[in-house]
């Protein structure tokens, strides 16, 4: 049976986050060329806050962690959220900077940095919280910031989150009328750390409105502590119907119903422990989320079926994504099957039987058509035309070779001097795996360099296991240029969309915004360039610009914030 992978449309999204980051890194280099202020001195860390001496004439300070820009502050204090070497530079209104680093041998090192070995994991709660009840369903809560961290604030009513803001107030138009509303505000850091909640009672039963909200004990504020749906499973009945099942929460949680979301859209609710979905599209993989809701409005954490590529521990997600992207290069179907297909244009297997040969001449160009019996009931047709280059059009119908069984069409163009173009037209190769190839790959080689260009190249690999449920698959659409030069490091640029077992069946867009450059002579260590993997609003940015050819730097950005990691190039992480 022919194997057909669904063709993937390429998605390209620019990452403004990376562009800003590279600009700021570049500004650090430019800053060194515009030093006109003396170094910042007296940088210390007390376990919570980094402080330094005020510099005469300075109007602000830039904060760096491990030579990466973090933020700009006007005061002489900064609360770090991650460990690392914190450096401070000053600037004035005329565009002058103090040095980020002293590199001359005869100059005493500056004291503008301090090593932060550990940070206070706590987030201070909002201060001076007060509220106003405007009407029987509207009110507003206010607070003051208490640290220099980059904070957001989450506001809830009776345990149900209403929304978030990076400001210091929140307007509510969904208060319960003729009732006490317990409104809470929580400070949330960029890494997802939360403060203790501060709560007020918004009493819409007041005889006169507007009225001030009253204080209440924060310790008694509702906490989303009910048990999330346990052991969720999905049974698929047909191409359009499936059912979800889960275990009932303890009776003490007083669960009223369970919300069922599919790809972030609420499908409905269930008072029991199952939900039937007959609105599925054929051949589509969905992500379901279950949330238990109690009788007093508390909501549980999520239970996920078929998670997104970015669901789970951030560190695990980073390593899995990088290893997966490396897998795209390792299992590139052209690298596996291109040389074999190309060789058939010159020499067919010995057990193929020549059925007929026919030649024709058009405008002085000779074309030769050869038809072979290529095993079982299969046939192969090869049409060779020689002009300035040799063009061979090959059509396979269940043809056996020592390497694989082929089905489909392919064209090979070669000049015999280092140029080769292979255009796959729905070619399939069957061996231990099933491979599907479509698109063009051009190779140009001379004594000093080799360039490989993939143009709208689709490929798929399906690895068959004893248990069909364990089958692994990988499909990708590539537009990529790879350069290998004898006199310097290898480089590549890429734009691809990949759908594989490790992406949880969803299309992941991978692009480079700058050329990736490999360490000369290395097996796969890269020293410059940035690569972005994106799914929806979540993304992973991999940077090789670490100053150490053995390491990479990655930042993962999700709805829960940003988190960064440093790792080593390894056999599991090799780019094309």
Q: How would you sum up this structure, described in words?
A:
- The chain has 576 residues and is mainly beta.
- The protein is built from 3 helices and 40 strands.
- The protein folds into 4 domains: 75 residues, Immunoglobulins (Immunoglobulin-like); 94 residues, Sandwich (Immunoglobulin-like); 71 residues, Sandwich (Immunoglobulin-like), CATH 2.60.40; 255 residues, no CATH class.
- The strands form 7 sheets. The protein has a 17-stranded antiparallel β-sheet that branches. Strands 11-10-13-14-16 form a 5-stranded antiparallel β-sheet, with no helix packed on it. Strands 4-3-6-7 form a 4-stranded antiparallel β-sheet, with helices on one face.
- It is flat.
What Rg do the Cα atoms give? 31 Å
Give the count of structural domains: 4
Mean pLDDT: 80
Major β-sheet, in short? Answer: 17 strands, antiparallel
Helix- and strand-based class? mainly beta
Task: State which percent range the strand residues make up.
Answer: over 45%
**What is the helical fraction, as a range of percent?**
under 10%
Low-confidence runs: 1-34, 218-224
Number of helices: 3
Q: Quick one: how many beta strands?
A: 40
State the distance separating the first and last CA atoms: 31 Å
Taken from the alpha-carbon principal axes, the silhouette is: flat
């Amino acid at each position: 049976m022919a194997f057909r992978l669904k063709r993937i449309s390429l998605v390209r999204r620019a990452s403004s986050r990376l562009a800003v980051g590279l600009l700021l890194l570049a500004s650090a280099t430019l800053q060194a060329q515009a030093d006109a202020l003396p170094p910042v001195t007296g940088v210390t860390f007390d376990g919570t806050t980094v402080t330094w001496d005020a510099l005469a004439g300075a109007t602000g300070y830039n904060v760096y962690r491990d030579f990466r820009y973090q933020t700009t502050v006007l005061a002489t204090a900064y609360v770090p959220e991650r460990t690392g070497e914190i450096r401070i530079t000053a600037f004035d209104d005329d565009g002058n900077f103090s040095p980020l680093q002293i590199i001359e041998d005869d100059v005493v090192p500056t004291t503008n940095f301090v090593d932060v070995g550990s940070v206070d994991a706590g987030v201070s709660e909002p201060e001076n919280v007060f509220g106003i009840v405007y009407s029987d369903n509207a009110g507003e809560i206010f607070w003051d910031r208490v640290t220099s961290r980059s904070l957001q604030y989450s506001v809830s009513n009776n345990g149900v989150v209403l929304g978030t803001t990076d400001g210091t107030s929140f307007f509510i138009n969904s208060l319960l009328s003729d009732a006490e509303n317990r409104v809470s505000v929580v400070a949330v850091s960029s890494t997802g750390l939360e403060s203790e909640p501060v709560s007020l009672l918004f009493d819409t039963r007041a005889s006169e409105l507007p009225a001030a909200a009253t204080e209440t004990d924060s310790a008694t504020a509702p906490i989303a502590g009910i048990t999330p749906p346990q052991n969720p499973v999905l049974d698929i009945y047909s191409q359009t119907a499936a059912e979800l099942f889960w275990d009932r929460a303890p009776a003490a949680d007083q669960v009223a119903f369970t919300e069922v979301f599919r790809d972030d859209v609420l499908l409905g609710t269930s008072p029991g422990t199952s939900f039937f979905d007959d609105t599925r599209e054929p051949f589509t993989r969905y992500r379901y989320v279950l949330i238990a809701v109690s009788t007093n409005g508390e909501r549980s954490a999520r239970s996920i079926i078929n998670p997104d590529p970015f669901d789970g521990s951030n560190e695990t997600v980073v390593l899995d994504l990088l290893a997966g992207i490396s897998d795209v290069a390792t299992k590139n179907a052209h690298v596996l099957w291109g040389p074999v297909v190309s060789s058939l244009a010159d020499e067919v297997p010995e057990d193929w039987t020549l059925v007929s040969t026919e030649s024709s001449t058009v405008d002085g160009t000779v074309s030769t058509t050869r038809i072979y019996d290529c095993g079982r009931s299969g046939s192969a047709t090869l049409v060779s035309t020689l002009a300035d280059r040799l063009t061979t059009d090959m059509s396979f119908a269940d043809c056996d070779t020592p390497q694989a069984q082929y089905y489909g069409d392919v064209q090979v163009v070669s000049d015999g001097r280092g140029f080769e173009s292979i255009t796959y037209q729905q070619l399939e190769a069957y061996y231990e795996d099933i491979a599907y190839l479509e698109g063009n790959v051009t190779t140009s080689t001379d004594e000093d360099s080799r360039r490989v260009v993939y143009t709208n190249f689709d490929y798929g690999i399906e690895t068959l296991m004893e248990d069909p449920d364990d089958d692994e698959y990988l499909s990708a659409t590539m537009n990529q240029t790879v350069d290998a030069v004898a006199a310097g490091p290898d480089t590549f640029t890429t734009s691809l969309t990949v759908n594989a077992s490790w992406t949880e069946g969803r299309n992941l867009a991978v692009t480079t915004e700058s050329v990736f450059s490999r360490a000369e002579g290395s097996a796969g260590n890269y020293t410059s360039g940035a690569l972005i993997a994106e799914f929806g609003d979540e993304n992973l940015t991999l940077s090789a610009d670490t100053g150490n050819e053995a390491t990479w730097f990655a930042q993962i950005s999700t709805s829960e914030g940003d988190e960064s990691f440093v790792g080593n190039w390894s056999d599991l992480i090799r780019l094309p």
